[in-house]
Design goal:
Blueprint: E1 9-13, H1 25-46, E2 50-54, H2 63-69, E3 73-77, H3 84-91, E4 96-101, H4 106-109, H5 112-126, E5 132-136, H6 146-157
Parallel strand pairs: 1-2, 2-3, 3-4, 4-5
Helix pairs in contact: 5-6
């Protein structure tokens, strides 16, 4: 007996950015990367699926082109590399975002109260109107105090509609 799995999203992983700007610059990105992702995104969209990408760093100068190519969801939404509040406002209704909680400043170096406050702000200001999946901006570093992880989880668990999901064993 086989198991049939259906996916509604295809997630690509590329890292085109650094802390400030693209690694290869926009001209080379357009020449070497864009034609390939255009074909990949087109196939996903033709299948009626959602296009998602992970690309670290300051890549927001590509968002107009990525949306034009069919991108639906962008991760990681890194406040250290981009203005997450302005970008959410600019692309609301065109592009959804995943991430937002600083893994370079707030989570490792903030107090639990600062983590709670930033989590609440992200949910309130970026989450309003949809198009946002709250999460740490990137993988949580090993040196993040447990109290800070528990602080953002506490805020999430207090949200209206929160429910735990358990997976079959």
């Amino acid at each position: 007996m086989g198991i049939a799995v259906q996916s509604d999203i295809v997630h690509f992983g590329d890292d085109w950015g650094q802390q400030h700007g693209l690694i290869m610059g926009p001209r080379l990105w357009r020449e070497f990367i864009k034609p390939r992702i255009q074909r990949m995104y087109a196939r996903v969209r033709e299948a009626g699926k959602i296009v998602s990408i992970h690309s670290c760093g300051d890549v927001d100068e590509l968002f107009d082109e990525l949306v034009e190519l069919g991108l639906n969801l962008f991760n990681p939404f890194q406040p250290e590399a981009m203005d997450v509040y302005a970008l959410k406002k600019k692309y609301h209704g065109q592009l959804a975002f995943h991430g937002g909680l600083s893994t370079q400043r707030v989570l490792p170096f903030g107090t639990p109260d600062e983590v709670r406050a930033e989590t609440q702000r992200l949910i309130r200001e970026i989450g309003r109107g949809g198009g946002y999946i709250f999460a740490p901006a990137h993988a949580v570093p090993g040196d993040v105090p447990l109290e800070n992880i528990l602080a953002f989880m506490e805020v999430l668990q207090s949200q209206p509609g929160y429910r735990e999901v358990t997976w079959p064993s």
